[in-house]
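Backbone shape codes
____________________
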Amino acid sequence: VGAKDADMAAAVNEVIKMGGGLVVADGGSAVERLALPIAGLMTAEPLENVVRALDSLCKGARETLGCGLEDPFMPLSFLALPVIPELRVTDMGVVDVNQFKTVPLLM
């Protein structure tokens, strides 16, 4: 997550570099991160390390970026989940799950 275009680009680049994960970026670079290298979704790290990293990520988003959400990564996770009806962002683009069709971004 990031508050500016450059920060979001830095977050995406860091996620790519880690092979999957979660990132908070500010000032054009990653300030908090959790690598999730197993299928881009999981890690073999001990639970205590993961909990600590998730807490740091959420705290970083709230304090550094001024995010008002307790856990800003939760809505992002559901946004991409294609089994929940309505519009979802997937690797195929924006999909209308009810119609089973991709949605053009430019009209």
About this structure: The first strand starts at residue 21 and ends at 26. The chain has two domains: 5-71, 77-107.
